[in-house]
Design brief:
Layout (H helix, E strand, L loop, with lengths): L3 H8 L12 E6 L6 E9 L2 E10 L2 H14 L4 H4 L4 H7 L8 H25 L1
Antiparallel strand pairs: 1-2, 2-3
Helix pairs in contact: 1-2, 2-5, 4-5
Bound molecules: FE2/S2 (inorganic) cluster (FES).
C-alpha cells in the first residue's frame, strides 16, 4: 500500500523533536482522523537552518512530516513556501488516495510555521 520511500521515512524519521528557541511554530490537526503535527523552524537571514517536528498520527503523517522537514531544511523561506502537498506526495513516491489528506497536513503545518515567522518579522518593523 505504501511506497518504499514512505516506509523508509516512517521507520527512520528525520528531524523528530522540538526546537525550544524556535523562530516560528506551526501546528495543525485534522479533526476527522485526530492526527496532529507541529513544526518548529530556526531561521537565520531568511534561510531555514533547522527544522524539527512532533507528529501524532498515522504512518503517512509521520513519513510526510519527515519528508517536509527534509525538503524545507536549508531552503530560503521563499523556496520553502513552494513546498506543496503535491511536492510532498511526489517526493514520497506517491500516497494512496485515502492518505492524501496526510500530505496536506504536512504542507499546512510548514505553511503555518512560515506564516508565524512572517508575522513576527512584520511586527518587528
Ligand atoms: Fe490523518 Fe494520516 S490518517 S493524517
Amino acid at each position: 500500500m505504501y511506497s518504499d520511500i514512505v516506509m523508509a521515512h516512517f521507520n527512520n524519521p528525520e528531524n523528530i523533536g522540538v526546537i525550544e528557541d524556535a523562530d516560528a511554530v506551526g501546528e495543525v490537526g485534522n479533526p476527522q482522523c485526530g492526527d496532529m503535527m507541529t513544526f518548529y523552524l530556526k531561521i537565520k537571514d531568511d534561510v531555514i537552518e533547522d527544522v524539527k517536528f512532533q507528529t501524532f498520527g498515522c504512518v503517512a503523517a509521520i513519513a510526510v512530516s519527515s519528508m517536509v522537514s527534509k525538503l524545507a531544511k536549508g531552503k530560503t523561506v521563499a523556496e520553502a513556501k513552494k513546498i506543496t502537498k503535491k511536492t510532498v506526495a511526489e517526493a514520497l513516491g506517491g500516497l494512496p488516495p485515502n492518505k492524501m489528506h496526510c500530505s496536506n497536513l504536512g504542507a499546512d503545518a510548514l505553511a503555518l510555521a512560515i506564516q508565524d515567522y512572517e508575522n513576527k518579522q512584520a511586527a518587528r518593523v
